[in-house]
Design a protein that fits this description.
It contains 19 helices and 21 strands. By secondary structure, the chain is of the alpha/beta class. Helix 4 (168-179) runs parallel beside helix 11 (334-352). The longest helix has 24 residues, at 60-83.
Amino acid sequence: MAGLHTGTPYLLPSKRAGQMEYNCTGKTLASTEVFSPNQTRGATCALPRYLRLHFPMMSQRSRCALQLALLLAWSLPAQAMLSSSSFRAETEDAEESLARVFLVAGQSNAEGAHTHASEIDQFPPFVGAGLPQSDAFLWYELNGPSGYSSNGWIPMQPATQTKIFGPELTFARKVAGETDSRVIIIKSASGGTNLAVDWEPGNPTGQQMYDRTLTLMQTALADLTSHGIAWKLEGVIWQQGENDMLNSQHVSEYEWRLTALIDRLRSDLDEPELKWFVGETSFKCIWGLDYWDHMPILKNAQLAVSAADPLVWFVPSSHLAFKVTSQGPHYHFGTEGMLQLGEEHADAYLASTGVDVSHQSTQFPGELPAEAGDTVRVFVLAGQRSMEGEGAHVSEISDHPGFSGLDEIQESVFYRYQLGGGVHVSTDWAPLGPANYLESFGPELSFGQAAARMLDDPVAVIKIADSAAFLVDWLPQHPRSNRPIYNDAVRFIRRGLADLTAAGFNPVLEGVIWLPAEHDAWWPPYRNQYAPNLTALVSNMRADLGLPQLKWFVAELRDDLIWGQEELDDLDTRIESVAATDPLLWYISSDSLSPSPPTPTLGTLGTLELGRLMARAYGVTIP
């Protein structure tokens, strides 16, 4: 069976120079590979050197005794990767006992540019993800010919030289947790590389990434086999495309080049059924602004490759967090987005093996919060990044006593949602609560609670968000729209209203609460056209929903967001000009919100406050 490799157990301890040395790969340990007691169980390879350095006055006999004690406490679970029978398959049917091997490859977002290990614990869903993992191992070569390497297997962790990381960190953590299998990652990535030159097999120019990667794969896999590790090559996590998008010829050739790369690697590794997981090049990157016309070409090429090959999966990424500086959206996911990206790749892989990774929808625990014939007041909350909820974490809600309980479901409020531009969509009405989506939330939680307290009738919230979109993406048939949202949004609203009607209720659409896109504030061509485009969106939706008197409430983005005060002030002025000419559109100032953290979004507290602010703005309009 291709990809299934077994061997005899490898006994790590070996005598050398009269003392016991432990080497994960059979290579001599470099002088810098010193064990730290702060590392987790997998990091015991340099334990004897650690004892000699830190206990120089201890006798050799005492050091050996302490070494054995520490190995029993720390090392055995991790060394099981290399020596225990759990990594031997007695028969080919015992595939669950195999170590699962993956290649992570691509350019800077595979490498992990603009990630920082020191930031990981700032993001509640990923606390501890930067610690070495005892059930996952890594061998990496990064940054091309002039780069750096792990020089063999290390416990899964950020790169030891630079403390950056790619999708492998959370990918390995999630796959190992869901499957109870050891996960082994071989990683080869280099920033700025393209498919047309650098990843072209046999090409003597460029960074020769294909040849380097193939050699690394063959070396690492042979090393596993030589040590008796039973393993199976499971897939390739591919995160690349930005640099091909810079060249009109290269981006037009991307589909066939990627197909050729996949076929060639499968052939050279003798793995004809090797799975590939192709990560979307995020629409939030600055290439997506400078080369907006090339973005859909690249995405369609990635989608076409996955559609033509049943063993290739397209992994969406534009809904994930993305690095933003004072100069606007950068080229890279950054720390939070990269942690999320790894889990997205893990979900795609797990789903390919039959594991159910679907988000569970909540249901009303008892009777619906309305009776047949009741009027239900429906609100649409729509917008981009801050409406979606980036940077607002469900686990932090309890840190703010004034909003206690919003991390639980609100049985008295109906809720349905379409998030990430359609990546996560609810199928029916459910009680309002966190959507189990990236462990984040938007202003809908506090808005729904405040609106329900304000009104005698039952309340329903429809949320539609795409954090990578521009306002032009919300306009029907706009020539510059690359992420068309409008038609799906109108259908989703109609379906929600129709479902309430079918259930015996009388739904009344009370208004649309709109939160602008930070991208529109930063990008001058779209900021300059924001007023006429917003007017077009409002008028189109009123007409298509058959509600010429439909109220609109447009909230201001905070001026202290990292996008730039002047740009945000300019956007606010343009929104106010629309409100001045439309008696059914209200502008909501955000001046009363708590100061924002130095991020592109409002954070947990600001998002909670914004929801209540939106509800109060609506309350003022009630007769």
